[in-house]
Amino acid sequence: MSKNTRFQRILLKLSGEVLSGNRNYGIDPKLTNRIAKIIKKIYLKNIQIGIVIGGGNIFRGISVSAKGMDRVAADYLGMMATIMNSVALQSSLEKNGCTTRVMSALSITQLAEPYIRRRASRHLEKNRVVIFAGGTGNPYFTTDTAAVLRGIEIDADIIIKGTKVDGIYDFDPIKNKNAKKYEKISFKEIIDKELKVMDMTAFTLCKENNLPIAVLNIKDEKSLLKFIENKKVGTIVS
Fold first, then answer.
1. What domain range includes position 19?
2. Per residue in 24-44, pLDDT tens?
3. 4, part of any domain
């Protein structure tokens, strides 16, 4: 761990949409490479990095099941979408000089190792970026919940949620220009004010395990590095 950082091991949660860029769906190789370069800056500081990425840019299980598809089938298709995103991000990270492993909760041995907690910890100790794919391996759970679950299992210091917004606001900043941003906020305040940070299962897991959450804009190339270096950026929930 670098002297000017406060974390040894992080779990980075990315939405699938950050890989699609200006497209409505799919993977934009240029944007994926840009995200990989942002992650590399943290990698070079010898911080152990786990990543969970959603699949919303390819397939949305919940919205599709609402239109008539069986929920279980829809969720498994969503998990497969996260594997596609994970392999795409792995490719970009490797091209940028980061050693990586993709570990999947679904068995797909041609593309990923099976997820085994102790093996994941060993990869992290050897400074390999570990991308956790396939969600939890079970339907009815979001990738937010998968991220928190993996964060707890690998003893991460914090969950960092990389989004399109630079923190948590009291109102939607896109709809309300007077929305107030929080630098720090407690789990209790989030619940009382009904602010949407993560789904309730993921949020409750963080609260019960005293695992802090940071929310920041992953598209801002400097925000993740600034946060790691203890500078004021994003919002911390603790």
1. 9-237
2. 788 999 999 999 999 999 999
3. no
Backbone CA torsion sign across 21, 42, 183, 195: positive
The residue type of 234 is G
Cα separation of 109 and 87, whole Å?
A: 12
Distance of CA 39 to the CA centre of its chain: 12
Instruction: Answer for the pair 206, 200: CB distance below 8 angstroms, yes or no.
Output: no
Question: Which secondary structure element, helix H or strand E, spans residue 188, and what is its range?
Answer: helix 187-192
Per-residue pLDDT of 119-171, as tens digits, reads: 999 999 999 999 999 999 999 999 999 999 999 999 999 999 998 888 999 88
Is 41 in contact with 48 (CB distance < 8 Å)? no
CA distances from 22 to 27, 49, 166, 228 (A): 10, 27, 18, 27
Q: What is the widest separation between alpha-carbon atoms in the chain? A: 53
- Residue 1 within any structural domain of the chain: no
Q: Which of 104, 102, 105, 103 is nearest to 137 (CA)?
A: 105
DSSP letter string, 84-105: HHHHHHHHHHHHTT--EEEEES
Count of the separate structural domains present in the chain: 1
Whether residue 15 is contained in a domain is answered as yes
Report d(CA 40, CA 148) in Å as an integer.
22
Cα-to-chain-centroid distance, residue 9: 14
* CA–CA–CA angle 203, 204, 209 (5° rounding): 105
CATH number of the domain at 49, please. 3.40.1160.10
Residue at 80 is within a domain: yes
CA dist 130 and 156 (Å) reads: 12
